[in-house]
Amino acid sequence: MVRGSGIKDIACVEKISKGKVLATLKKCHYQITPKQRQYDCLEVDELWTFVGKKTNKQWLIYAYHRDTGEIVAYVWGKRDLNTVKKLKAKLKVLGVSCARIASDTWDSFVTGFKGFTQVIGKFFTVGIEGNNCTIRHRVRRAFRRSCNFSKKLENHFKAFDLAFFYINHGYV
């Protein structure tokens, strides 16, 4: 899954049933943990995917460290200020601090990260925008125009957990 293969592809290559692949995915408990406690700059951005049909959008908002290529923390939710606050709270729970936050001009980022030194603009989010492309290539269900999509929300989140662990550590 972390290299762009879908459930059917894995089942075919491994000569096992789709049910077995889905059961294995359901049992996996990969969670990312930050490699550092202090970062010089974290870039934050949002990415949307869908589950079942395109009207069922799922928004991923995450923090990324450009120098190491690490996804530090992420949350799922609506594209609103509350989800940005959830990301900020998650960073606090993980014990992560940073010298500055880089984001685009979306008001929720500007408002949600008040109190942080902020650099705002597309120039400062080049790294995370490139990582969005990497995510779309690694996780086929992140494509906007694709036949590979999740039917269940739980499988969708598990696939991203697995992919983010792979991106951060290079293995699963």
UniProtKB/TrEMBL annotation:
GO terms for molecular function: DNA binding; transposase activity. The keyword Transport does not apply. GO terms for biological process: DNA transposition. Keywords: DNA recombination, Transposition. InterPro entries: Transposase_27, Transposase_27_IS1. Absolutely required for transposition of IS1. Belongs to the transposase 27 family. NCBIfam families: transpos_IS1 (NF033558). This is IS1 transposase. It comes from Psychrobacter piechaudii.
